[in-house]
Each structure stands twice: as structure tokens, then as C-alpha cells.
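Task 17 of the worksheet. Students: predict the tertiary structure of the chain below and write it out as C-alpha cells. Keep your answer in the requested format; marks are given for formatting as well as content.
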Amino acid sequence: QVQLVESGGGLVQPGGSLRLSCAASGSIFSINAMGWYRQAPGKSRDWVAGISTGGSTNYADFVEERFTISRDNAKNTMYLQMNSLKPEDTAVYYCNRLINPKWSWGQGTQVTVSP
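Model answer:
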């Protein structure tokens, strides 16, 4: 079973930036399309961005070109660079593969955008 560990979250002011990391155990990471997801309090988990094994990317409409997803297969790690953060970006951010069934979810990393 793959283990996922998200990190890099924190408290940031509106307009600020954060870089999230997702570390995955096992070489199976490199053969899976991966994605970032987020869950705000009282809401369902939403897909944020995805990246193929070859590096092709796509994003949810609400990202509005503010986020950049990337991966380093040699390090079994994926990243999410988030710029121009808004209060509505406040959520716990998770990573997982795009296809189902999903791997076990990690604990996520909290992102809070507040003045």
C-alpha cells in the first residue's frame, strides 16, 4: 500500500504564496497520474489539479492560473505551487492518484488564508 504524506501548508495572508509537497512511498508513484484535492470545513473533497506520468497538467476552474502542479518521479514527490491565495482557498489539501480506487488518504496539510 502506498503511503502519502502532505506538507507545506500554513497560515498566509491573502495574495500570499505557499508550496505544498506530497511524498509517496514506493516506486509505483511514477506510473500513476496524480492529483491534488482539497476539503474545506463542512464541504466535500474537491479535485484541484492533476498531472500525468509525463507531466501534462490540468486544473479546476477555480484555480484561475494561480496554482502550478509538478512532480519529481526520481524523488516520488509531487508539488503544488500556490500563488495569489484567497480566503476561499482555505482547506485541508490532500494528494492521491487520479484513478480509482484511490490509495489511502494521508492526513493532509492545512492551508489557511486570512488577513
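Marker's comment: The first strand starts at residue 4 and ends at 7. The chain is about 0% helix and 45% strand.
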